[in-house]
Specification:
With 90 residues, this protein is α+β, with helices and mostly antiparallel strands. It is 11% helix and 28% strand. A two-stranded antiparallel sheet has the order 1-4. Strands 2-3 form a two-stranded antiparallel ribbon. It binds iron/sulfur cluster (2 copies).
């Protein structure tokens, strides 16, 4: 993100980043996680799991804001986040 001016708290504020884990075999391919991720981190993959569904895959992990929405929405508890990393504002 490019700022048109430098925020006064730029040294203090950090951007949260999440690390996503997908349990492919639990997925039922509903696509909720892909559709509702506000940062477009996920996409459906071409591969099949044992149930015959396409699980999602991580497209751009660095874009994940660790909001936890995918974890909350997944009806099969097939996604979880661990560790909350914080990076400086670029
Ligand atoms: S935690 Fe939020 S930003 Fe990260 S993948 Fe899930 S929905 Fe997207
Ligand atoms: S929300 Fe859960 S079940 Fe649905 S596609 Fe994503 S990982 Fe699979």
């Amino acid at each position: 993100m490019k700022y048109w001016r430098k925020p006064l708290d730029i040294e203090r504020v950090k951007i949260p980043r999440g690390r996503i884990h997908i349990l492919k075999e639990r997925c039922k391919g509903c696509g909720f996680c892909v559709e509702y991720c506000p940062c477009h981190v996920l996409e459906m993959s071409e591969e099949f799991n044992a149930k015959g569904y396409h699980p999602p895959r991580v497209k751009d992990e660095d874009a994940c804001a660790n909001c936890g929405l995918c974890e909350m929405l997944c009806p099969e508890f097939a996604i979880y986040l661990d560790g909350k990393e914080e990076v400086p504002v670029p």
